[in-house]
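Chapter summary example.
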Amino acid sequence: MEFKTTMNQQTDQQFEDGLQIRKQVMGEAFVEKAFSNTDAFTAPLQEFVTRNAWGTVWCRDGLDLKTRSLITLSMLTALGRAHEIKGHVRGAVNNGASMKEIQEVLLHASVYCGMPLAIDAYRSAHEVLLEMGKIDIA
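The structure predicted for these 138 residues follows.
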């Protein structure tokens, strides 16, 4: 898969490490879409996110990927970032999180972040979990 970038990513190990972990967590299709939608203005941001968020923090020892995903969901809930929550719910499932674990993180966040933010997070997570077949419909 070829990505549009503004620098030579072949010589940038941090970028390569970030790209690998980003694909593992978010899925190859998600990452491919993120890069295919770049242009001269947005390419540096995608590179920065891949190199610095995914290539440093997400690659560190100390927390497994599932834990990082659940922490990320709680922070995105606090920030009210419903769109980002959707992507990271997929990532959490890819990292082994269950529907129940995601549900508990969002419920826990409701106490500290407030109900309106938690309700929006639940809506976003519910939509994705339904799409992924992770919720049994009675």
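To summarize the output: The radius of gyration is 16 Å.
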